[in-house]
Amino acid sequence: MLTRFKMANEEFLPTCERVLTEEQKQHLAKDTNLVSDFKQTKLEKEAQKNWDLFYKRNSTKFFKDRHWTRREFKELCTTPCTVQV
Asked: What is the distance of C-alpha 74 from the center of its chain?
């Protein structure tokens, strides 16, 4: 099955599609366990710690201030933008 992409009133198809062998299809059908039980338990136990580390590392790179869009793109506001920082 090909995925179609639509952009600017034009339709694009991917240039190639990977064809799986019967052996690969059977293997994928059998493989329903995405993560081992050990890994799943470990990730669930350490979720809070992992999120804390993520936010610590990415606090200035990942999220923008909630008023950032209004401050940077005043012309997009439908009503006069009054930014309260």
From this structure: 27
State the amino acid at position 2 in one-letter form.
L
CA distance 55 to 50: 9
Beta bridge partners of 11: 6
Span of 5-14, 26-35, 36-45 with lowest mean pLDDT? 5-14
**Using CA atoms, how far apart are residues 42 and 35, in angstroms rounded to an integer?**
11
Residue 67 DSSP one-character state: T
| CA contacts within 13 A on the Cβ side of 50 | 6
What is the CB-side half-sphere exposure of residue 31 using CA atoms within 13 A?
Answer: 9
User: Which amino acid, one-letter code, is at 79?
Assistant: T
Q: Give 65's contacts (C-beta < 8 A, 6+ positions apart).
A: 71, 85
pTM of the model: 0.35
Distance between CA 18 and CA 16 in Å, rounded?
7
